[in-house]
Amino acid sequence: MAGGGRIRDEDIALVRERSSLVDIASEQVTLKPAGGGNLKGLCPFHDEKTPSFTIAQGRNVYFCHGCGEGGDVINFVQKIDHLSFVEAIERLADRAGIALRRMEAGPAPVRPAGQRQRLVEANRTAQAFYAEQLLSPAARPAREFLAARGFDREAAQRYGCGFAPAEWDLLTKHLRRLGFSTGELEMAGLSKPSRNGNLIDRFRRRLLWPIRDVSGDVIGFGARKLFDDDDGPKYLNTPETPIYKKSHVLYGVDLAKREIAKQGRAVIVEGYTDVMACHLAGVTTAVATCGTSFGADHINVLRRLLLDTDALAGEIIFTFDGDAAGQKAALRAFADDQRFVAQTFIAVSPDNMDPCELRLAKGDLAVRDLVASREPLIAFALRSTMAKYDLDTVEGRVGALRATAPMVAKIKDRSLLMGYQQRLAGYLGLEVEEVRRAVAGAGAAPAPQQRTTVVADNPRLVVEREALKLAIQSPVLAGPVFDAVDQAYYTHEPHQAIRAAIAAAGGASAGVAGPGWINTIRDGCPDLASQMLVLELAVEPVRFDGEPDSGYLHVVLARLQLAGLKQRIMDVKSKLQRINPVTEKEEYHSRFADLLALEQHSRALKEQAAGGL
Question: Which residues neighbour 539 within 8 Å (Cβ) at sequence distance 6 or greater?
């Protein structure tokens, strides 16, 4: 141990006695009553979905039945903050206002604190320095920046905003005078060597926000460019340090943690000013990432605060700009969302404004309304993906289904799966069963022999096949009735090729049953597969008991048209779902009239199709 002697045993005992494990652990984990005076939560030391971290309040000790970690309040602080035993005692003593004594005669010498404590103290001192500089004449651009975004002096003080002066080493000299070493200032990310080797301030001529961990300690800074001649990035953050890991840090979590636990909700915004705006507007669960995208480690922080388990789910609400970059961020968040058990939503301002801009333009209520009008992230992700395709074409619908089926397949709540399959079917104008098969098979390649099986099992393709058989085997019977139902009603590619070949040969009306007619159709087909299918259909019995007649022909062709009409009805319904009846009133009524006409035609065809196949 570095000088100063051993801490007295009675002082260690006093630290244990006056340090509540429940209070300290609650800064990391949401705890719920578990009976017998115990509390339970998600373990902060390993990833889990079912709470196994238990605190016995009466004994001020903890144990995790999942990973085996356990001990008293000192052990908890050691483990959670990666401190030595002495460092943990010193931190708890500072928190409890206990003056530690050493086992030496005379006054206790000043002992160098542990590394983490020193780095936190350096950042805390820097924050006070920057906050004071914000009041200086040179910081006027920083104050104007805040004022222009609706933040007064009180708000700046509440969030600890500061200003890094233009001088090269003003902070560095200040901290050195207070006893911090060169190594500590570099390790804390507050200073850096210049080209000539002198130590200079990392941040200069910038507006700063202190970044705090979940317990409220200042561990770093975010710095915003103010001047055009500053050639650095728009935002500059503290580099990775022993206490600042950007992938683990959420700005505002120290202020939001209790409300997140209380409300069971966390709002993820994109920047420091958005967090300030949300909190000031009454959305007190807002947090933001610090110089990195939202990731797995951030998820773990929030899950512990939300007590996010299978049994008790909270809400995660992402707010993004409505522009392309914001949509991209939302879709990236959807991929991460699968790690959550919590329900995940997105709130996008209709005017493409972030929460800070929205508060400034429309007031606090607009920010609260933005969060209240959230929609499930999966719904937003599906709409954003489908928007890339032309849903008025068969190719577009197929492409959209291929792109969205894997997304629906990832839905963790199986009770929601059917509802989203139905919604997707409505958007795309497809049968629910077709969407269900696509979702079930998402990511799985079909077997080579599946194509024939699909044709045989698909009622619509069976009808198409039957109509072609009648034209090939009995062209005189099929005649003008067959010819009146064009190629658009055939959906299977080989069937379309054969129907086109029949039309090219003059239609069924021009045909005479026999090998010549069959060969003419076969020769008009563009590929070997459809040519072979012509020969197959020429010898395959029709699905009618006896010689087919005109009644059977009308049943087959009515069912063929009915299937196509059903698709057209679904297409119109799909378009209606995508039309706003208020802002696009004329278009909506026009489409609705089309729908009524199609449904009337459908009823007539159903009467004709009442026979059996």
Answer: none
